[in-house]
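Data availability excerpt. The first of two example chains:
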Amino acid sequence: MNIKPDGIYVDGTAGGGGHSEEIAKCLGEDGILISIDRDPDAIRAATERLKKYPQSRVVKNVFSNIKEVLIQQDIKKVN
């Protein structure tokens, strides 16, 4: 992926946070990453893995609710 440092990205299935971490590594302080998962174990794993990236947010929900998740996060569009 061609991640822009100030971009806004969504990982719809965070899982253990591996893909999210690779995105987060490329983001600058103005970038945002939303990682979504419904599995409590995945949420814990992704939260732990991403805690060193302040631009990341882990959300317990399902990808099909992405519109509502983005509204709750006050995000109007993503890269």
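And the second chain:
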Amino acid sequence: AMLSASGTLAATDGGPATDDLRKPCRSLYVQTARWDRGSFAMLFDSANPDASVETRNVSTVAPQALFLLNDAFVLDQSKKLAQRLSAEIPNNPDARIQRAYSLLFSRHATSGETAACKKLLASADWNDLMHVLLCSNAFAYLQ
């Protein structure tokens, strides 16, 4: 979803699957490396590749938030999303905020959300705002 929002998702179909998480492909083409139990996928409740499971665990734990706040991939996608918005809408902050909400949440920003974004932009930049939005519950969970 981050790759799609930032405009960097490879839109081509086909594999082969790879364990290189830097490749901007759909997760369908990400190879599960049974030997690598330290990847971020385990942090976000991926199924154990060594066993059949009927249902997947769903948890919310502090390390997930720390990953989103500090991981280079997330920071890079925030920057690329900010660049995409700047290129699409160069001189209209309100329209840029609306476009961000459309890309990330498939809806318009409320007047309160727009005001909160503008307040953050008074002391930070667009990269920081996009990082906040990418780390939000609204982006992580479907409602």
